[in-house]
Amino acid sequence: MNILRGLLSKMLLLVVVVAIIALAASYMFVSIQQQQTLDENISTIKQAHLRATRLLLADEMQEHILSAEEVALLSNLSQLEQSEITPFFEAVWPRIQLSFSLSSLSFSNGTTDIAFGRFPKADMQEMQLLVQTQRRPQTGILCHQTCELAASVPVNYQGQIWSLSLLSDLTPAVMLLNSIVGSDIGVISPFEQTAQENNTLSRYATEVMTGMENTAELFALPLSEVQLQQLEQDGVLIALPDMDYYVWFETIRAVGQDLRIMFVHDVSATLMQQREQKQQVIIIFVTLTFGILLFLILFTIIPISKINQLKRAIKLIGAKEYNIARYRLGKPRKAMMPDELDDLEDEFRHAIDVLETYEQELSNSQKRLVRQATIDSITGLYTRNVLIEDLANMNREEHIANVAIFFLDLDGFKPVNDNLGHEAGDIMLKKIGYRLKGVVNKFIRVYRIGGDEFVICYSNYASQDTLKLMADSVVELFSAPFHIYDTSITISASIGIAFQPATSIEPDRLLRYADIAMYQAKEDGKNCFTFFNEQMRKNAQRRFTIKNDFISSLANEQLYMVFQPVVSASDRSLVKLEALCRWEHPELGHIPPPIFIDVLEESENMNTLFEWIVGEVLTELEYLDSVGLTNIIMSINLSPSQLVNDEALYLLSTMIKERNIDAKRIELEITETSLITNFEQAKEWIEQATELGFKIAIDDFGAGYSSLSYLTAFTYNTVKLDRSLLNNIDVDARQQRIVGSLTQMLHGLSVPIVAEGAETEAHFEQLRLLGCDYIQGYLISRPIAHQELVLFLESNQFYQAAGKNGVASTGS
Prior knowledge:
This protein has 812 residues and is an alpha/beta fold.
C-alpha cells in the first residue's frame, strides 16, 4: 500500500500543482486583460472629458461674446457723450451684472478705462488691445486671482474703436460640465500653492468643487508618495472601502495662469465587474480540479497495484534471483482488454531471460575492457592511463628511489600515413613497439600515450650517465630502416628526458617537462635527446606569455615602431628608413623581435601584428610627406609566413589605397631563409607584389645559403649585404675582396646594394670604395622612434643633404 499511496499522492499532487499553475496563469492573464481594458476605458473617459470640457468652454465663451455684443447694442453708447458714459454704466451695472451673471466690466480705448467690479486691467490689456487693433471680438479663459470667462468686443464710439470687456465666473460652466460628463469637477486655484505637507487630495485648493458631499471621504484619504506622483503625471486609481475613484488633472490654455481642472470619476461598477469575473475563474478551476482528482482516485487503484507487483519483481531481478522473480509475476495470462501495464509485464518476463544471458556476456566483456584500457591495441604496449597510475604508485613504494621519463616523438611519421595509408602507419607503429619492448626490464617500462608518441619510464637508475647511455641506445633502435610493403623507410625519434626523486613525483608535471625537452630536441635537429632544464621551462613559459599577452600588449602600446635611416654612400643624403618593431613587456622586459616573431608565427596574431606595422609605417610616410620628404622609401621586413600569405598582400594593397600612398614608397625586405622555406610559393607572391608596384629587397644576403640562382629567379630592386660580411671590412682583406666581388656582380645585374652595420667612418669609407650604393648602421643612426626621428630630420646633416637632392630642406 505504500507504493499505492506514494504514487497516487504524487499524481494527485501533480494535478493540484498543475491546476494551481494553470489557475495562476489564467488569473494573471485575466488580470492583464482587465488592466488593459481598464486602461483603455480610463483613456477613453479622459479623452471624452477633455473633449466635452473644451466644447463646453468654447460654447460658453461664444455665448459670452454674444452677451458682450448684446450689452453694447442695448446700451446704445453712440448716443452718449463721453462724460455721460461713466454715469450711464454706474446706473445700469447692477442690472447688467445680474442679467448676464458678470463679475466685472470694462469699457476702454487704451487711454480711458471705465471698469466695474474687480476688473483685472493688467491681465486683460493684451486682449483689449487686440480687439481695438484687429476690430474683432476676442474671448478666452482668464486666470488671475480666480479663473473666469473673459470676452471683449469692439465698439465704434465717436469715431474710435473701444473695447467692451465682460468677465463672468466659471462656476455655472463647471456645474453644467458636471451634469454632462457625470464626474465631479474641481477648478484648481491658480495662485494657491499646493500644501506639500498635506498628503490628501485636499492639498489642492479649489475655487469650486462639485459633489463635495459625496467625495468628502475621498478627499480626506491619505495618499502615498507614489500615488501623488501618479496623480500629477497621468492620474491615479484610489480605492475606498465601498467605492473606487479615478482622479486626474487636465490643463486648459488660459490668459495669465493655465486653467487646471481636477476630475473625479466613479469606476466602482467597472472594478466590481472585474472582481466578479476573477471569482468566477477561481470557482471554475476549483471545480475542475476537484473533478479531475476524483477521477484519478477512482481509475488508478488497479494499475498502481500492478505496478507494486512489478516493483517487487524488480528487487528480485536486481538481486539476480531470476526464478523467484518469475514466480512473483505468476504465469502468463491473456488479458481480455490488454493495456500498457500488461505489455510491461510481458517485457519484464522477456527481460529476465535476456539478463540471464547478458550476465555471462558482461563478465567476458569486463575482462576485455580492462585489457583495452591498459594495453594499446596496435603496439601491445601499456597506455597513458597505466603510465599515470604507475607514476602515482611510485610515490608510495619505498624501494623506488627515482624515476626518469623518456618522451619520444617520431620524426617524419606523418608522411608514412599520407603516402602509404593509415594501415601502413599502424604496421610501422607495431614494429616500433616491438623494438621498444627490447629495452624492457624490471626497472624499465614502455608506453604508447597517443599518435606517434611513446614514453619510457626508467626507475632506480644509477646516474645521469646511465640515462644518457639509455637514450643513446633508444636512438640507435631507429638507425635500422623499417620494411613495409616492400618499401624501406627510415624514421627517427626526438627524445626529451626529465627525472624526479620518487618521493616527490608529480605525473603531469614530469610528463610536461619531458614534453618540453622533446620539443627542444626537435629544435636541435631531431634524431637526438635532450635533458630538461629550468631554462627550457622558462622559455616555454615565455612563449606562452608572449602568445597570451600579445593582444593586450598591443592595446596598451607596449609594442612600438623604430626607424633606422639608410643613406646614399655618395653624399649621405637620406634615401630610406627601415621600419623595425620593438616590444617592451612589463614582466619580460625587452623581447627581441626574432623571439616574439617566432612565437606569433604559430598563430593568427602574426596577421594582426603585420596589419598594425603597416598602419604605423603608412602614418610615418604621411608625416614625411607633410614635411616635404616625398621621395623617402620605407622598408618593411616580411616573415616566412607572410611571404606565402595572400592575405598579407591584400592587406598591404588595401591599406595603401585607403591612405593614398604610392606602392613604390614601400620596400618589402625578404630574407634568404624565407625564400628557401617554400621557394615556388614565395616566388609567385613576390611577382604579385611587384605587379602591384611594391619594391623588393633581398635581406641578409650572404648570411645563409646565398644561392646565386635566386638572383635570376624573380624581380627584385635591392640586395642588402649581411653585417657578418662587413664587421671587419676596414681591416679584413678577405672581406674586402668578397664584398668587392659581390658588388661587381650585382652592379652587372643593375641592382643597387645596401651595406648594413657601418659603425665607424672607416667602415663607411671602405664600403663606399667597394661600390656599396647605400649604407646603414649605427654610424648614421641607431633605430629611433618617431620623436627622435623628427629631431634627426630637423637637425642632422643627412636631412640637409636630402634637401639638396630636391627632396626637401627645412633647416634646423
